[in-house]
């Protein structure tokens, strides 16, 4: 029985790894030509009960600990006028509740735990007939179970549901300061070891130190239209002019924050944030299922990768428990996944609502310090 996974992201690789640990081979088809073809983005915090549990099921918990950064849990929350509302520094002996890990390191850990030929690079899924996958280069592959782990813009999803991601009103721009300790020690001290958030009216800045000394910065604009990048006057293909325009858009913010933008290199990546409806389900269908963002794309507030990893691990365990009955395994997996991820989706939507609100910083403070 051939298990075929489309997408070598965190979820697809966690599934392949757990299957392998249970003596079941699966092939992962990935559209990128190699593991380094595309930057993997910044840091992720893996939660004890979801992402870390998946690493435990994958037999990679110690290896995960070796690459995790507990101090990355540090948090500073500020108002646009520079007022510090909250500072949480992680003590040396703190439990590893939500340690940060570099996404590329985590993906490499999963990739290295699989045999070389488990991932077939340069295979972009196009469509499926019953039992046969078709790739954009004209090649094909047989399958008994097809798992769509192909992320936010999943093509496999259409085999199960008509639902499509919709724009959330958030448009974000990613920037970054390389080697910040050496190039801008004052800004390095300001950002600290972990997360640095400034929440304003309809705008936010989040900066985060990465394992390689880079500080990755996201500037988000809320309640904006889907075509906002075309009308915002931010020339993303002209980094210096884009930085100048972004500084203009934050003219009423404390100059320390605009100094962060001025110090950035020429990385300018626009991201339009979309989500699937919270609680999306589909009738269980023989031979096809989804995991990760393909199944439940959420706002980027800390749940998506954790859910994708756990989806992969739990689907792997369900298939190992029912090796002769894939439909039963898929039903069991989907029942749990729908329930768990709709809870995570509702929590993410609540945080997104806070970020979007006029008094976002005070509401976020109350979220972190309830009562
Ligand atoms: C800016 C940002 C910050 C985030 N921060 C966090 C965070 O701090 N914590 C957290 O938990 N989550 C975070 N997320 C969400 C998280 O990144 C995703 O939920 C997670 O990566 C989903 O994993 P996945 O395996 O489902 O999909 P992906 O990681 O997107 O992997 C999908 C894979 O499928 C491949 N693929 C796509 N189409 C095809 C095709 N047709 N054929 C073959 N292969 C294909 C892609 O190339 C990719 O390798 C963030 C997201 C964003 C955008």
From TrEMBL:
Sequence ranges assigned to domain FAD-binding in this UniProt record: 3-225, 288-322
Record keywords, A-Z: Cytoplasm, FAD, Flavoprotein, Monooxygenase, NADP, Nucleotide-binding, Oxidoreductase
One CC-aspect GO term: cytoplasm
Enzyme class: oxidoreductase
GO biological process, one term: response to antibiotic
Enzyme Commission code(s) on record: 1.14.13.-
InterPro entries: FAD-bd, FAD/NAD-bd_sf, TetX_monooxygenase
Superkingdom of the source species: Bacteria
Pfam families on file: FAD_binding_3
Cofactors: FAD
Ranges annotated as spanning the membrane: none
SUPFAM superfamilies documented for this protein: FAD/NAD(P)-binding domain (SSF51905)
Binding site residues for FAD: 45, 103, 293
Catalytic activity: a tetracycline + NADPH + O2 + H(+) = an 11a-hydroxytetracycline + NADP(+) + H2O
Binding-site residues for NADPH, renumbered to this chain: 38
Function: An FAD-requiring monooxygenase active on some tetracycline antibiotic derivatives, which leads to their inactivation. Hydroxylates carbon 11a of tetracycline and some analogs.
Domain notes: Consists of an N-terminal FAD-binding domain with a Rossman fold and a C-terminal substrate-binding domain.
Family assignment from sequence similarity: Belongs to the aromatic-ring hydroxylase family. TetX subfamily.
Family annotation (PANTHER family): FAD DEPENDENT OXIDOREDUCTASE DOMAIN-CONTAINING PROTEIN (PTHR46972:SF1), MONOOXYGENASE ASQM-RELATED (PTHR46972)
Assembly and binders: Monomer.
Name this polypeptide is given: Flavin-dependent monooxygenase
